[in-house]
């Protein structure tokens, strides 16, 4: 693998060692290979770890197969991969409801396998959506960018906007749900609001009030398992079609959709704002609109 970069105009000057270890999170083993093989070049010249990098420097990095062994991913059906964005380092796909982000076994096919088939290369899971939730999912195309994207998620530098159709109406148009979430000891499938759980913060805005339901927009400061579903249940506004946390009702799908993902590209620093459409989500909301008339 060979990667070429031009350091952006607002790049903060730093040493090669700092860039690789602290900024780009390259593991120690791979940093050693780059140093020994002279596979880190600045303006076409091999440099030491002490070299100071500045804006507009041209960087070339070469990784051999032994440096980053490829992940073994079984290829799925490329026709099932709806690609919203792709570049040299990352890909964003639109996951339909009812499809897992990744399989639980090496032979189980999921979105990861279908995207790999479409790109003809393995992709790496950065985050996941519940099987019943649709929307934008981010994958890394190489192990070089994978830890960087992972840290960006941990630092809340990758933002996801969700929409949900929920039961009832809200007194406030905007609210923040700040309730810790932990595992339900009585049902291993579920999470619950718990004083001993991990911090979880969800921001909610009401978009539309229907006759009995509300269309809401949601964003997260944290990424706990089932966070939106648990928080909405806790404030007595469960999501329509949520058979695990909501009412046992007939709905075509869980009405939760990851509408948008926003991030600053870790290398180019370009702001990416990627929208994911969902015909099934929109069709169910259209039913609510029609019921108003």
Automatic annotation (TrEMBL):
UniProt KW keywords: Isomerase
Top-level enzyme category: isomerase
EC annotation from Swiss-Prot or TrEMBL: 5.4.99.-
Annotated GO MF terms: catalytic activity, acting on RNA; pseudouridine synthase activity; RNA binding
Active-site residue numbers: 130
Gene3D superfamilies (alphabetical): Pseudouridine synthase (3.30.2350.10)
InterPro entries hit by this protein: PsdUridine_synth_cat_dom_sf, PsdUridine_synth_RluA-like_CS, PsdUridine_synth_RluC/D, PsdUridine_synth_RsuA/RluA, RluA_PseudoU_synthase
CDD domains: PseudoU_synth_RluA_like
Annotated family: Belongs to the pseudouridine synthase RluA family.
Protein name, entry field: Pseudouridine synthase
The species this protein was found in: Lactococcus allomyrinae
């Amino acid at each position: 693998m060979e990667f070429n970069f031009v350091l952006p105009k607002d790049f903060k000057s730093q040493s090669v060692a700092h860039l690789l270890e602290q900024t780009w999170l390259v593991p120690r083993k791979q940093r050693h290979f780059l140093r020994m093989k002279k596979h880190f070049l600045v303006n076409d010249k091999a440099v030491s770890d002490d070299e100071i990098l500045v804006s507009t420097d041209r960087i070339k990095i070469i990784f051999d197969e032994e440096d980053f062994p490829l992940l073994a991913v079984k290829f799925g059906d490329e026709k099932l991969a709806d690609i919203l964005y792709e570049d040299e380092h990352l890909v964003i796909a639109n996951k339909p409801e009812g499809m897992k982000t990744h399989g639980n076994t090496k032979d189980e096919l999921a979105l990861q396998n279908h995207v790999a088939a479409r790109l003809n290369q393995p992709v790496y899971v950065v985050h996941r959506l519940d099987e019943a939730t649709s929307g934008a999912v981010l994958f890394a195309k190489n192990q070089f960018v994978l830890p960087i994207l992972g840290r960006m998620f941990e630092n809340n530098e990758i933002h996801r906007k969700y929409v949900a159709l929920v039961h009832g109406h809200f007194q406030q148009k905007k609210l923040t749900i700040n309730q810790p979430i932990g595992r339900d000891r009585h049902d291993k499938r579920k999470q619950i609001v718990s004083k001993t759980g991990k911090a979880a913060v969800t921001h909610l805005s009401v978009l539309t009030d229907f006759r009995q339901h509300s269309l809401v927009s949601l964003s997260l400061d944290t990424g706990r398992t089932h966070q939106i579903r648990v928080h909405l249940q806790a404030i007595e506004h469960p999501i329509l079609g949520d058979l695990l946390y909501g009412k046992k009702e007939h709905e075509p799908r869980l009405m939760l959709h990851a509408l948008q993902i926003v991030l600053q590209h870790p290398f180019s620093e370009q702001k990416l704002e990627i929208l994911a459409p969902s015909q099934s989500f929109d069709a169910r909301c259209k039913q609510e609109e029609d019921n108003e008339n």
